[in-house]
Amino acid sequence: MLNRTFTPFPILTTERLTLRQLVINDEQEIFTLRSDSEINKYLDRQISNTIDDARNFINSVNENITKNDSLYWAITLSDSNKLVGTICLYGFSDENDNCEIGYELLTNFQGQGIMKEALEKVIDYAFNTVKVQKIEAFFHSDNQPSIKLLKKFSFRDLNKADETNHDLVSYHLTNPISNLK
Ligand SMILES: CC(C)(COP(=O)(O)OP(=O)(O)OC[C@H]1O[C@@H](n2cnc3c(N)ncnc32)[C@H](O)[C@@H]1OP(=O)(O)O)[C@@H](O)C(=O)NCCC(=O)NCCS
């Protein structure tokens, strides 16, 4: 059984970063993340057209956290409260003890190792606090930055084509503790 109690919200910290809950004040950065064509190049999702869309998105994310359905962190540099990216855990399955992961960085904050630092902390949280046994990531097969990032953590390609979208690949990482059993 997974430990899915997301209230109070789990704030995570690393050497350079604070991962906190989204607030309405993040609307401009969320709007940029969800409307910028470069960031969304490989993402199959509803684009934000207005600041209202971004605000509604923030509200729905926080409702899902209240219901313990998913976790969604704003990634900030610890010396500033400004959102530079997001990282989320969602699609929890109590039956299969697994979940999915997603992440994105504003263009100006890419290429600095920020996501690697955030991902390491969130993987640790997923395995050691929520106690999932497997984390999955689905993304476009041409998304090389994402493949490069996940390979740093030894995520493996499941080589399992998505029947509804042949461009999607699926990578997974198994909890190392469960491997010792
Ligand atoms: C996927 C994504 C988050 C990867 O971002 P990224 O900036 O490449 O990843 P990191 O933050 O870990 O940075 C790694 C890079 O920083 C460099 N770097 C610089 N300083 C560093 C440091 N102190 N520590 C580690 N790496 C550092 C690394 O060498 C690496 O560069 P390289 O790719 O040229 O080798 C980004 O491409 C993105 O937001 N894409 C759009 C959204 C998306 O497609 N999400 C995936 C689907 S869920």
Task: Tell me what you see in this structure.
The chain has 181 residues and is an alpha+beta fold. It has a domain at 12-131: Aminopeptidase. The chain is 29% helix and 27% strand. It has helices at 27-33, 51-66, 114-130, 144-151, 176-180, and strands spanning 12-13, 17-21, 71-77, 83-93, 98-105, 134-140, 156-157, 168-174. An eight-stranded mixed sheet has the order 1-2-3-4-5-6-8-7, sandwiched between helices. A hairpin with a 5-residue loop joins strand 3 (71-77) and strand 4 (83-93). The mean pLDDT is 94. Coenzyme A binds next to strand 5, helix 3 and helix 4. Residues 39, 42-43, 102-105, 110-116, 139, 143, 145-146, 148-149 line the site of coenzyme A.
In short:
This protein has 181 residues and is an alpha+beta fold.
CATH class of one domain: Alpha Beta
- How many helix segments? 5
Query: How confident overall, as mean pLDDT?
Result: 94
> What is the correct CATH architecture of one domain?
3-Layer(aba) Sandwich
Distance between the termini: 17 Å
Largest pleated sheet: 8 strands, mixed
Structural class: alpha+beta
Q: Order of strands across the widest beta sheet?
A: 1-2-3-4-5-6-8-7
List keywords for this structure.
alpha+beta, Aminopeptidase, eight-stranded mixed beta sheet, 8 strands, binds coenzyme A
Set down the secondary structure blueprint:
Elements: E1 12-13, E2 17-21, H1 27-33, H2 51-66, E3 71-77, E4 83-93, E5 98-105, H3 114-130, E6 134-140, H4 144-151, E7 156-157, E8 168-174, H5 176-180
Parallel strand pairs: 5-6
Antiparallel strand pairs: 1-2, 2-3, 3-4, 4-5, 6-8, 7-8
Helix pairs in contact: 1-2
The structure holds coenzyme A.
